[in-house]
């Protein structure tokens, strides 16, 4: 699984960046200009529905914009368990909320094994970054950009585009990501299935 920000396509008013600090901070009444979608794919290339984190209105000065947190991660786990089976493996990057003890316990109690990317290798190894998200961005551009009639239209459109990604492209990226070099157990249990 991995997260991806999707712009709401409106100007970000009252936003500024503090000098010598590259992180954006919110000033005054700003509506966060991104939704966060959390995507999951299986080793067979199966693509379940996306889990959405809607943008939040920020009103405090210098309040940092964020998407995924522990509470949202627990909600994602509930979403994930609707299509996961006991004995499945969930591969995640090293985002702080992914390592939360309640998140891990909830998954393990349901028979899900959790494996994390190495801290220095997540972005260039992730099959979702290398294939699916790039394809989704391209599909969004060809779909008239990121302009949507309303929020429901946005969810339906993006989810349909997401699920139209060919299974073979996902599987190929699992092979190309060379995950076995970083996790022997993942190689034996998961990669062997995707290659066969």
UniProtKB/TrEMBL annotation:
InterPro entries: RNaseH_sf, Tc1-like_DDE_dom. This is Tc1-like transposase DDE domain-containing protein. One of its GO terms (molecular function) is nucleic acid binding. It comes from the Eukaryota. Residues 59-142 form the Tc1-like transposase DDE domain. The lineage of its organism: Eukaryota, Metamonada, Anaeramoebidae, Anaeramoeba.
